[in-house]
Amino acid sequence: MKMYNDIRILDKKKIKDLLKSANSEWNIYAPIEGIGGDVYFDILPKDDKIVDEVLNNLSIKNNSNIALSPKDIFFPQMEVLFNIDKDDFTETIESSPKLIFGIKSCDLKAVLFTDEFFKRNYEDVYYLSRMKNRLLISIGCLTPPRPGSCFCTSTGTGPFLEEGYDIQLVDAEDFFYAEIGSEKGQIFADKYSEYFDKRTDGDTAKKDINKIKTKASDAVNLKVDFDRAVELMQDDDFFPNDNYKRIGERCIYCGACLYTCPTCTCFSISDTVSSNKEGIRFRNWDGCVFEGYTREASGHNPRYEKYLRTARRYEHKLKYDFKVTGTSGCVGCGRCLESCPVNIGMSKFIVEITEGKRII
Amino acid sequence: MKNIYQPYPAKIERIVDETFNIKTYTVKFINGDIAKSFNYKQGQFVEISIPGAGEAPFSITSTPSRPGNLEFTIRKIGRVTTKIFELKEGDLLHIRGPYGNSFPFEEVEGKNLYFIAGGIGLAPLRSVINQAFDHRPRFGEIKILYGAKSPAEFCYREEIPIWKKLPDTEVLLTVDNPDGEWQGNVGVVTTLMDKTKLSPLNSVVYVCGPPVMLKFVMLKLIEMGFKDGDIYVTLERYMQCGVGKCGHCNIGDKFVCVDGPVFSYRDIKVFPERERAV
């Protein structure tokens, strides 16, 4: 694989202009802060006047707590698969060019992991066409956006990455260092070279970047023995059923952890058709913690008991994802703990099994 | 790129009433190219849909060695099957597939074939049973042990007497609840396993039925000396997408829809015990 060493300077004041300038070429998704302080990836409007208003709320703070990973850009929470007209099923494929600006390292790892899932066995045409023309510009976190929940240094997925990004932005207060990571990233930086300043002294820049990255890693204060947890879970006979049962007693099975999880991909397919036989076939996110998820038409449910569904969630991420792909499906984003109404999360489960503590 | 979720219309050519809530549908794809390219193996399944009601998985009960007839035996039990039961001959279904692996066939030539089924569980086994009859000299003895709740709830009641007359073939039936006319065995299907000689040597067993039946059949087969690698089970799970994506049918690191639905008992035993229901 070709290595890209190019480092540019991106002036923070010029970012809005860069995005506006690239907006004709790409559908741009960027973190936008809402009135309530919540941050989501929103698509920038094409209208010049409206885009200014939206960009006023652009959240490129190095620790923006983006509520959802951009997984829903490629795998929408609700996605039409077919338009139905009587007995005709017409596929609805979306394949616009997408620039994801401001994605976090953990979420970027999750996107790459999810890409492989949708390619495996049978190719999922909906996901693959949504992602085929895509540019990922990441911003590493200097401090954890979800303090006490983020544990990316334990999973090796942040706060900065060595590869996988097209461009990685490193916050240096007044400006970003822009590390080019792919041919696509190089082409983009060259095309918009008026924003990506080439005048960097390579060695000084690298030293400066390394200093920032080290400080950022040190700032991730929640550390768990992730490797040990995965190693334990790889044992075919290791089933911490007592932990599952205790978690099962507390879990309210709301599904917040899996909706916010950047690598959860389960879905259900449904139809809605009107009396004149026109309608849609669509899929929406589903999840293994729900009682109806495994229930068969006969009423038989292999995971009727709650703790079996808890077990599935943890074993999928730590046992089976690793067994199949060599990588765990957990990227340490901490959203499961952050979103949990009863304070349960992957990091806590890991502490329980690796340290033998009861903290749930 | 082929769209793995694209269903294709198929016309219902024939409907046979099997029991009060089970019918067998013979269908034919409208598009000749689709019909030609639809090559399936014994034990595979499809997703059948009715626009508006959605999709559900069904095993193919017809036999690859009898091309032209694509058959599904369907029990009215949920949203999709209730809609299917409203259809008449000439109406359309929408089908995608075939999916999943298959029952071993060429690999078990020369062996005795034993089939143990409960209720509609005979549907997927019928595919390999007829495949075996179409290649009869290649196999040893064939025994079919079939249980139903009551005498009126056996499927394939015209075909079973034909099977019984075939050489070196035994068909044993049992019911849970006999009526006045029933002369045969009464009891669960495991009781039939004592009524005939089942040799664990040079034999393979194919099993399909409700979870509780599977559990007791497995226990008994192992007790009789069958090796877990010689027992094949087709598992029932909520296989919603059929292509290893939606996740509903996962067990351990496997998807029943892609890695199964046919598993040897040896493979099943690797699954977490609390989940395998066998």
Topology at a glance:
The complex is a heterodimer of chains A (about 350) and B (about 280).
Chain A: E1 7-11, H1 15-22, E2 27-33, E3 39-43, H2 48-55, H3 71-74, E4 78-85, E5 88-91, E6 98-103, H4 105-119, H5 125-131, E7 134-139, H6 152-155, E8 167-172, E9 175-180, H7 183-191, E10 196-197, H8 202-219, H9 226-234, H10 241-250, H11 256-260, E11 267-273, E12 278-285, H12 306-325, H13 335-339, H14 346-355
Parallel strand pairs in A: 2-6, 6-7, 7-8
Antiparallel strand pairs in A: 1-9, 1-10, 2-3, 4-5, 4-12, 8-9, 11-12
Helix pairs in contact in A: 9-12, 9-14, 10-12
Chain B: E1 8-19, E2 22-29, H1 32-37, E3 45-50, E4 54-59, E5 70-75, H2 79-84, E6 92-99, E7 112-118, H3 122-134, E8 142-148, H4 159-165, E9 169-175, E10 185-186, E11 203-208, H5 211-223, E12 231-234, E13 250-251, E14 254-255, H6 256-259, E15 262-264, H7 265-268, H8 273-276
Parallel strand pairs in B: 7-8, 7-11, 8-9, 9-10, 11-12
Antiparallel strand pairs in B: 1-2, 1-6, 2-5, 3-4, 3-6, 12-15, 13-14
Could you explain how this protein is built, in words?
The complex is a heterodimer of chains A (360) and B (278). Chain A is an alpha+beta fold. The mean pLDDT of chain A is 95. The relative contact order of chain A is 0.15. Chain A is built from 14 helices and 12 strands. Chain A has 2 domains: 189 residues, no CATH class; 130 residues, no CATH class. Helices cover 37% and strands 19% of the residues of chain A. By secondary structure, chain B is α/β, with parallel strands linked by helices. Chain B has 8 helices and 15 strands. A 7-stranded mixed sheet of chain B has the order 10-9-8-7-11-12-15, with helices on both faces. In chain B, strand 8, helix 4 and strand 9 form a beta-alpha-beta unit. The radius of gyration of chain B is 18 Å and the shape is globular. The interface between A and B is large, with 53 and 48 residues.
